[in-house]
Amino acid sequence: MSAAPEKVTREQLGAFLGRASAARVPLSGSIAMTHRCNLRCVHCYLGDERSPGSAAGELDTAFWLSVVDQVAEAGCLNLLVTGGEPLLRPDFAEVYTRAKKRGMLVTVFTNGTRLDDALVRLFSELPPRKVEVSLYGASPETYDRVTAVAGSFDRCLAGVDALRAAGVQVALKTVILTANRHEVAAMRRMAQDRDAGFRVDPAVFPRRDGDLSPLGLRVSPEEAVAIEMQDAKRAEGAAALYEKLRSSKPDDHLFTCMAGKTGFHVDPAGRLQPCLMVNGGGFDLREGSFREGWEGSLQAFREIRALPGYECNSCERRFLCGLCPAQAGMETGSPHLKSEYYCSLGRERELALSRVCLPTLPA
Q: For residue 84, is the peptide bond before it cis, meaning its omega torsion is within 30 degrees of 0?
């Protein structure tokens, strides 16, 4: 009788991730085979890229199977399949199955409305790490108002419940909007009733074409943080991480996250990017291999220095504000300029944590 495998400790995992980071191993990545979506969410940053007509520029199954094989060979362990709505692709099951059989832990982002018996059966037979379903309200009125598609609330919940009945790991998430802020607590209860994870995010971005109108749907930083702090477990985790990292040395690189270091993204046009939020540039995987792009343009991305006067990388609150130069650049026009909204989120989070979890922090 073989012995049960030993559990990996937090220290062992940390050491492994540290070695992978130092060696620039692409451990975690995402692919978006489509930007099309069957919903028309009022806050979506993709804009017209969601339309059915955008399918004309999508790449075929053979391309995506090759990408899966290449990233597996390069060392990818965690693969996210996202969109748009990835379940709109008729070859989703084939690409998902290839990723699973290549030994990767696969997460799927979906709105849940396209789940059918065949997909639920696939996820039951080849379990994903989890399926994350976006939830935009706790009532049909609110949900359908956000998605602009009548009946989408009922279809979403039917998909979630089918997954849970099949024993598939599910997590729900929502973006905090002026249109749904009054139902966040109810959405959290919906997740708890289904034994599903739940997280909230106040991040609302401009559209990729430069349209700033979605920013009008943001709630104030004070309200956003108050809603976040309703999750005591999340608050405690954020406090512990902040206490650990806030004294970290400043970095003169513009991007200090894992984008292009252990993370990557491949967009529907086949361009290898450092992460999902970087728009433009990248490396065309139709013209070269993943390895070429990883060691070429993504390595160069990691070398970008912040311009003189850039203050974010020396700010203690950079571990609280959600610092992302790519996201800030969508709003300000330059990744070297900070977003006042996210800066305010950082200040409010620090203040909230000083009251709730970290009484030693300056109020």
A: yes
Which two three-digit tokens encode residue 173?
């998430």
- Contact status, residue 322 vs residue 345, Cβ threshold 8 Å: yes
Question: Rounded distance, CA 59 to CA 163, Å?
Answer: 29
- Return the axis-axis angle of helices 232-245 and 340-356, rounded to nearest 10°: 100
pLDDT value at residue 301: 95
Q: Is 180 left (phi over 0), alpha (psi -120 to 50) or beta?
A: alpha
**Residue-level pLDDT at 53:** 78
Beta bridge partners of 175: 201
Please state whether beta strands 271-273 and 78-82 pair in parallel, antiparallel, or not at all (unpaired): unpaired
Predicted TM-score of the model (pTM): 0.93
Return the beta strands (E) in 275-349 as ranges.
Answer: 283-284
Q: What is the pLDDT of residue 316?
A: 87
Sheet of strand 170-175, all strands in order from the earlier edge strand to the far edge = 197-201, 170-175, 130-134, 105-110, 78-82, 28-32, 263-266, 271-273, 283-284
DSSP state of 55: G
Phi/psi at 111 (5° precision): -90, -5
Contact 40/148 with Cβ under 8 angstroms?
yes
Task: Provide the pLDDT for residue 344.
Answer: 97
Structure tokens at 249: 């040395």
CA 10 to mean position of chain CA atoms: 23
Helix (H, G, I), strand (E, B) or coil at 93: helix
Nearest CA to 58 out of 96, 98, 86 is that of 86
**Which neighbouring-strand residues pair with 263?**
28, 259
Question: Comparing C-alpha atoms, which of 198, 204, 199 is closest to residue 219?
Answer: 204
Per-run averaged pLDDT (10 residues), the chain, 363 residues: 67 83 93 96 92 84 98 98 97 98 98 98 98 98 97 98 98 98 97 96 93 96 95 86 84 93 97 93 96 97 94 90 92 95 95 74 52
